[in-house]
Amino acid sequence: MTGARWWNVLVVGTILVLAAINGVTRPFGPWQQMTAWIALALFLACYVLYGRRALRDGTSGIAFSATVIVLSGVVVACSPSLAVIQAIAFPLVWVAIESTRLAIVANVALALVVSAGFLIVLGTDPQNIANTAVIEAISLVGSLALGTWITRIAELSAERKLLIDELTQTQDQLALLSRDAGVTSERERLAREIHDTIAQSLTGLVMLSQRAQRELAAGETGAVGDRLELIEESARETLVETRSLVASSAPVELGGGIAAALDRLGARFDRETGIRVSVSADISGEFDRDAEVVLLRCAQESLANVRKHSRARAVSIRLEGCATMTVTDDGVGFDPLLPNDGFGLVGMRDRLALVAGTLAVSSAPGTGTTLTVSLPAGVTP
């Protein structure tokens, strides 16, 4: 409000109207009329010189208010009909002073000075004092009520602007946190993908190389060729998986469905490790691709754990219905309650948590291990 152009129009228009009224009414004498014109001219000049700046940024607000108070009293003392100058004097004083308390004091001072102007020109008989007191009391109360209301609106607007700025900053921070969370989630996904695919393939390559070296040292040259063929095949598949991972596509081959993918996975694991793998699938309905990927990843991780830890001779993978898969080995087993710093089971649980799935581990030392993967019904169609 303080910087609006309509202040210029209001002040200039009011001064011109008062000047015209002063010229028409011809109050109590030529010198009063001339004094009133001079006071109005000074009022307008003060507004132009530093009043607008006071309204805009509060600079020289007290000096401008004091000028307005004095000149308003002079104008009224010259001609009571010009008392309408209060219509702009009260709001100008209120807005020009930034402190609410000082603005109230200035409004009271303006009412007193204008009252003095009335009494100077009209006299100090009881009737004039009573009329002046009533008129100025009403003007003062109205000015204070309007001023406090305007001030409260300005304060609420400032608070609202502050809240909007804080909300904008909070939204920016949330957006940044969301991006960071997305980056972290992507890193975790890549870590799982690397562990589930490339790390497993490289582990298989190492074991095949060690086996080929043992066979070569034992003079079993015929088997070495098969091992080298497996190493080349595994290396090529690892290269494909790596390129797929870099291209942000899941390195999963699901041609023929989940049952066929598990058969290929079991056959390859059997060739690489010599551990027999049996796969059975009792599927009712069709699998959603996301569910197939999760199940295949869990099967890969389960077989990776068998290869690294179980010393098993046989593994069975059984797929039941559309949401349950069990992987059982006849290895050495372990105690699931003991702390485990490996990534395999943790990564499997994290992967299943993304689709609200669960992992149950049943094992004990010397009794083998059974992993049960369960997916919610909502993951499948």
Automatic annotation (TrEMBL):
UniProt xrefs under InterPro entries: HATPase_C_sf, HATPase_dom, Sensor_HK_TwoCompSys, Sig_transdc_His_kin-like_C, Sig_transdc_His_kin_sub3_dim/P, Sig_transdc_His_kinase_ChrS
Native species: Lacisediminihabitans changchengi
Cellular component annotations (GO), alphabetically ordered: cytoplasm; membrane
Cofactor(s) the protein needs: [4Fe-4S] cluster
GO molecular function: 4 iron, 4 sulfur cluster binding; ATP binding; phosphorelay sensor kinase activity; protein dimerization activity
E.C. number: 2.7.13.3
Domain of life of the organism encoding this protein: Bacteria
SUPFAM superfamilies according to UniProt: ATPase domain of HSP90 chaperone/DNA topoisomerase II/histidine kinase (SSF55874)
Transmembrane helix is among the record's keywords: yes
Designated name of the protein: Oxygen sensor histidine kinase NreB
Membrane-spanning intervals of the chain: 6-24, 31-50, 62-95, 102-123, 129-151
Protein's UniProt keywords contain Transmembrane helix: yes
